[in-house]
TrEMBL record:
The Leucine-rich repeat-containing N-terminal plant-type domain, residue ranges: 38-77
Name this polypeptide is given: Uncharacterized protein
Taxonomic source organism: Citrus clementina (Clementine)
Keyword terms: Leucine-rich repeat, Repeat, Signal
Disease resistance R13L4/SHOC-2-like LRR domain mapped to chain residues: 85-183
Length: 219
C-alpha cells in the first residue's frame, strides 16, 4: 500500500512539473508573438510622431494595440505582418524615420504627394520584401542612399519631384527586378546609368533635371 502511494505521489509530481513547464513554454511563445507584433507597431508609431497630420488620417494609429493591422492605411498578411503602408496624398509633412527599416515584410511604401522633408533613411535598404517605393512629389532632400540596392524585389522606384542631390547610385543597376525608375525633377548631378534596369529608360526625360550630365556608357 505504501509503495503504491509513493508511486502515485511521484506520478502526480511529474504531471505537475510537466504542466508548469508547458504553461511556461506557451507563455513564452505568446510573449514572443506580442513583442514581434509591437515591434512593427512601434516602428509605425515612430513615423506618426515624426509627421504633422492636420487631417487626422493617422488618428487610428493606437500604440496600445498588440499589432497595427487594425489601423487605417495599413495592410497586413495572414500572419499579421505589415505588408502595405498607403499614405499617398494625405497632406502629411515631417520626416521619415529609420525605424521604418524594421518592417521586414513591407512590400509597398506609398508616401507620394505629401510634404515629406529630410533625407531618405539608409535603413530602408533593410526592406528586403519591398516591391514599390513611391516618394515622389515631396520635399525629400539629400542623396539617394546606395543601400537601396539591397532591395532585390523592388519593381517600382519613383523619387521624382523632390530636392535630391548627388548622383544616382551605380549600385542600383544590380536590381534586376526593377522595371520603373523615375528620379526626374530633382537636383541630381553626374552620370546616369545606362545598364541594367536603366537601359530602356528614355534619357531625354532626365536631361533637364541633371547638372553636368554624363552618360555612364561614355565614361
Amino acid at each position: 500500500m505504501a509503495a503504491a502511494a509513493a508511486a502515485a505521489a511521484q506520478w502526480l509530481s511529474v504531471c505537475i512539473t510537466f504542466s508548469v513547464s508547458l504553461i511556461i513554454i506557451i507563455g513564452s511563445s505568446s510573449l514572443v508573438a506580442v513583442v514581434s507584433g509591437n515591434s512593427e507597431g512601434d516602428a509605425l508609431y515612430a513615423l506618426r510622431r515624426s509627421l504633422s497630420d492636420p487631417d487626422n488620417v493617422l488618428q487610428s494609429w493606437d500604440p496600445t494595440l498588440v499589432n497595427p493591422c487594425t489601423w487605417f492605411h495599413i495592410t497586413c498578411n495572414q500572419d499579421n505582418r505589415v505588408t502595405r503602408l498607403d499614405l499617398g496624398n494625405s497632406n502629411l509633412s515631417g520626416r521619415l524615420v529609420p525605424e521604418l527599416g524594421k518592417l521586414e515584410h513591407l512590400q509597398y511604401l506609398e508616401l507620394y504627394k505629401n510634404n515629406i522633408q529630410g533625407t531618405i533613411p539608409v535603413e530602408l535598404g533593410n526592406l528586403k520584401s519591398l516591391i514599390s517605393l513611391d516618394l515622389y512629389n515631396n520635399n525629400v532632400s539629400g542623396k539617394i542612399p546606395p543601400s537601396l540596392a539591397k532591395l532585390k524585389s523592388l519593381v517600382f522606384l519613383r523619387l521624382n519631384d523632390n530636392r535630391l542631390t548627388g548622383q544616382i547610385p551605380r549600385e542600383l543597376v544590380g536590381i534586376s527586378s526593377l522595371k520603373v525608375v523615375d528620379v526626374s525633377s530633382n537636383d541630381l548631378c553626374g552620370t546616369i546609368p545606362t545598364s541594367g534596369p536603366f537601359e530602356h529608360i528614355p534619357l531625354n526625360k532626365y536631361v533637364s533635371s541633371f547638372c553636368n550630365l554624363l552618360l555612364a556608357s561614355r565614361l
